[in-house]
Amino acid sequence: MTDFDKILDDCLNNLASGASSVDECLLRYPQHASLLEPLLRTAVRLEQGRALKPSVAFKARTRAKLTQHMQANPSRKVSRAPFMFWKFATSFAVILLALLITGTAYAQSANPGDSFYSWKIASELVWRAVSPDPVRTDINIANRRIDEMNKFPNDPVRWAEAWEGYLEVVTRLESELDADTLKSILPIELEQEPIEVPQQPVSTPTVPMIEIPTQTPEGTIIPLPSLPEPNQPIPRIIPTIQIPPPIR
Amino acid sequence: MVRQAKSGDSEAFAQLYDAYVERVYRYIYFRVTDEAAAEDFTSQVFLKAWENLERYKISSSPYIAWLYTIARNLVIDHYRTKKETVSLDEILPFASDHQTPDEEVDVRFSLESMRDSLQSLTDEQQEVLILKFIADLPNANIAKIMNKKEGAIRALQMRALQTLSKRMEQKEMI
Questions:
Q1: Residue A115 falls within a domain, yes or no?
Q2: Which of A45, A83, A121, B33 has its CA 20 to 30 A from that of A93?
Q3: Number of structural domains found in chain A
Q4: Dist CA B174 CA B158 (whole Å)
C-alpha cells in the first residue's frame, strides 16, 4: 500500500464517518490535493446513491408475494439434532468399544481379588456363550481357575475365590458331559501322563476333594480329575496339554 | 432475528425483509439496466434467501453480505444469459416518497447519470464501487462476496474510482 493509497483510504473513511469533508481532506494533504480531489468527489457522488429507495408499492407487493411463498413453502428446516445425535452416538460407541476391548484384554491377567477379576469372569461367560465348543471352553476356564489357585496357595481369600470359580465350571462341565463329549476328550485324558506334583511346604486352605462320576459309553464310572490333597498344586484338567503353572 | 428466521419463523424473516429490502434493491438497481429487473431480482433474492436460509451460517458473514452474494449471483446469471440494454428514460427510480416533482426529476436524473457512468466500467469495478460506496460494506465483507483478498479489493477500488472520476469529469458530474 503506497502513501497515496493510505491517504486516500484515510480520507474515504473520514468522509464515510462524517469526520471530515472533501475540502478538509484536501487541506490536510495539499501535496496530493490534485489527485485526491476527483476521487473524493466521485466517492461522495456515489454515496448519494444511498438515497435511492424502491417504491412503497413494490415493497408491499413483494412482501405479500414473499408471505405467500413462505406459507406455500415452509422452511425446510433441517433438524441438526438427529445428525448431531448420531455423530455423538457413534463417537460414544467407538470409545465404549475401545474401552471394552482394552479393559477385557487387561482383565485377562487379573487374579482373584483384583478389581478387574469380575470383568475377567464376565468376559469368560461371553467367551463360553459364543464359543462353538463350550466344553473345551469350560475346560480352559477351569484350567484358568486352577492356575489362579496355584498362584495364591498362601492367600485363603483369593484361593477360595478361584476355588469357587473352579467348582462352578466343574458343575457346568458335569452337566455337559455326555457320551459324545466323553468320546472326544477321554482318549486325550487317558494318554495324558500323570503329573508329578512335588509337595509344597506351604499350607493352603483345606478344600474338599472333587470327584464327579461320569458315565462312559461302556458304562464305566470315570471320575473327573479331582483336586489333590491340600498343600499340593493342582494339575490342569483334560484335554489340555499345557504344562501346569510354575509350582511355588 | 436471523436465528429465529433460520428456525423457520416466517414472521421473523418478513421483518428481515423489511430491514434489508432497500439495500438489496439499491445494489441491484445499479447493477442492472431497468427498474423492472431490479424489482424482479430483489424479490428473487428474498425468495431464494428463504429457501436457502438453512445454509446461511451466522458466524461466517453478516446477513446483508449473504443477501448481496445471492443478488450478485442472480445479476451475473442474468448477464450471462442476456445482456439487456434499456433506455434510461424507461427507468423510474424514486429517491424519496416526499419530493416535489422538480426535486424528483433532479434526483432521478442524478441517479440515472450515475448509473450510466457506473455501467461504463467493468463488472468488477462496478461491483466493488457499489458495495463500497452505495452498500457501505467494509472491505473485508466485499472481499468475501467477490472471492478476493482485501488487498486486491483495495487496488480494484482505486482503479475503479480513478476510471469513474474521469468519466464523471467528462460529463461534468463532479
A1: no
A2: A121
A3: 1
A4: 17
